[in-house]
Amino acid sequence: MNDPFDVLRIDDAPIAPSAEFTTRLRARLADETDEMNETNQMNETSSTTMTTTTTDAAAEATVHISSVQPYLTVRGGAAALDFYRDAFGAVEHHRLVGDDGRIGHAELSIGATRFALADEFPEMDVLGPQSRGGATCLFTVHVDDVDAATARAERHGAVVARPPEDQFHGNRTASIVDPFGHPWMLLTPIRELSTEEYAAAGREGGYTVVESTPAEDLHQLKRYDAGDLYYFGIMVPDVERAKRFFGGLLGWEFADGGGGSHISSISAPTGGLQPGTGPTDLYFVVDDLRAAVTKVRELGGAADEQVDYDSGGAAKCTDDQGTPFYLSTPADKYRL
């Protein structure tokens, strides 16, 4: 008598998975990775003890934002998912379908960007562009060939609002409106412009480039509280050589000035390269600099007198074992 399991057994040689299975598996792995990252962030946040004092007038809170996710409302969610897949190569992660057939929530990705959509729910005042009479936002998709991408979107039902055209800012762009009323800009870089070329091209196009101050922008990305690392200065014998090293290693970009080189491409805490030798200068935030200097001395350390700069006050200190550091009170413009 044959063993039933022998009858059911099949060849265990590896086979190539189907494209559909590969797509589903990739989407599932992306979901699992996102959930793991969110869990790790929650664990890191919960492991930090924070004390918040509230009043009847206002309550302060620090908001940590890791990303922004576009959320579309459309009339015809299932058809929209098909369109974004066919026109833009979107990968669907999952969809929640109600008893009435409407999509309550769906998530999908185009490249590295994840976004969501849902059907209209007029009973909740959730309406798409076709019901409201026009969209209020625009989405930009970077593509390898804007002409081909525009033609493909049009074949799948999009309306071409502006055909592909080279622009003064160094990109070739086209504007389309998808079948559900959302406008999209398709963009392909054609040449990289220097800062001077970009400003000149902008003037020809009727625009003036207004530069922001990198240090202020970067410092204002977070609120500085007592004990935070505010700034670091890496002491190096050759600043230009260090710029090449750390730029190549970490992708840092720099803004020269004051004998050193500020790292302009990182968020708070910011830092820079300074000519010299010795340990890295670390600046820690305190609420009352003079009181903190006194405390350093009471604890057996040493501290210079406070020096005031445009960015705030600072005092050079050493702990009771001779380790150097700085205490700083950032100026109001660097605090949110």
Task: Based on the model shown, name its key terms.
2,3-Dihydroxybiphenyl 1,2-Dioxygenase, domain 1; 29% helix; nine-stranded mixed beta sheet; alpha+beta; 336 residues
Strand content: 25-35%
Cα distance spanning the termini: 80 Å
Number of extended strands: 17
Portion in helices: 25-40%
Q: Radius of gyration from the CA trace?
A: 28 Å
Can you summarize the main beta sheet? 9 strands, mixed
Please, what is the average pLDDT? 77
The parts where pLDDT drops under 50 for at least 5 residues are 42-66, 212-221
Tell me the CATH superfamily of the largest domain: 2,3-Dihydroxybiphenyl 1,2-Dioxygenase, domain 1
CATH domain class name of the largest domain: Alpha Beta
Order of helices and strands: HHEHEEEHEHEEEHHEHEEEEHEEEE
Structural class: alpha+beta
* CATH fold annotation of the largest domain: 2,3-Dihydroxybiphenyl 1,2-Dioxygenase, domain 1
Shape: elongated
The CATH architecture of the largest domain would be: Roll
Q: Supply the number of helical segments.
A: 9
Whole-number count of domains: 3
